[in-house]
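Look over this today:
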Amino acid sequence: MIRFAHLQSGLLQASAKKAGEALPLYPPTVRARIAVRLRSAVQAGHLSPSAVTAAVANPAGVDQRLAALGTRMQKKFRAMAKIRPAIPSGLTTPYDPFYESAGMRRALKCWGSTLLCMDAITPDAVSSALSEGGRALAGCISQACASYADQCVSDLFKACGFQTTAQVEPLWVARPAWMALDNTETPIESVLLFPADNTFTVTGTTHSVDDAGAMLLFSALMSFRLRALSLVCPQDIGTEGFVGSMLFSDLESYVGEAVQSDGSVILSDDLLEHLENEHGIEREDEDGLDRVRKSLTFLARKKGLIPHFKSPYSAVMALRSFASTLDNEDAATALRGIASLLHLQSKADKSFHDTEVSAESLEEESWAVGVHIVSADLTGFEGSLIDDLHDGNMNCGSDGALFVQASSAESAYRLAVREASVITVLSTLIESYAEATLS
């Protein structure tokens, strides 16, 4: 220090500060874990993206700023924990054996605590319910689930840049499975996901193969990645990729001989006899034969009409590019909304890639469970196939519900509500596009 005695103290302090900033606090493995925690905190709404961006904007001193960010998160969590009431395991409701069971008490504690941590239920609401017992807390949890789902749908519409004239109800309902079914064998952390109406959900349009925008949209639908629910595209109805149809299987074998090079369709005596004997479509049934011709034409042109996108990003860019060419602003807005939804869902799906998700049917013999169908007028048989599917579910006593399980109750619930919201918003956007282009 004697050698530098002639230097000003301020300069020495500045040099020391720069040297400290140049020295990393964390090894690469720790930084990787910090990055994962920060991403989770942003997705959960505990940190703003701008705060994280500001912390890592300049490489110099980034570790110190990350440490300060972590300290801020800890203070926030401690502040939140102080106001959260503890849910006792001994909840009871007098004269109600249902809520006095040990299993129900564990379920109430699990889901009450989970929704509190998700900020889906307020501490005041829990405190008020606790003073009345288990039944009141169960009602509080049920109401919180409904409100949280409605908010997720509303938030997703805003994120897609699409305004609705009225509140849109979720097409699928997510509830804690144990409480919904009163089944002691059901894992407490699992979620029951079921259609709000019918045994599956449907978005119906009347687009034909002549609508280029609709064909592009139907292609993009194949890029949606869902882990619990299943999205059935119009081009897949009746094919083996869905539930299968003997009629379509038979028609595919006749495409080569029935569809001519000029696009015309000739029904041979052999095909006509087969249709009459196997599928009840008689030679005099002009309406039925017209649908057969339409189906054969679609099957022959399917690959050329509906391209395959290599990635969700390619589908997003194709939708946005096509929307920019439209004079119909309502149709363009709907397509841009679908592109944004696909982009958001792709990002959300990556956040769940480390989560083990199990989606199982409530009924072993169900035909279609957790299914949302987007229907069009590509073959003319879509309506009858959907009716057959519904009848099959009804005959085996299935309501289309499924269990969703993940690493925790919160992960299962977030995933179930997220996918229910995606299907609801997607259905509304497709209907908006159909209204703009078909009216």
Q: What stands out?
A: The two ends are 85 Å apart (CA to CA). The chain has three domains: 25-82, 97-159, 191-246+305-438. DSSP finds 16 helices and seven strands in the chain. The chain has a mean pLDDT of 83.
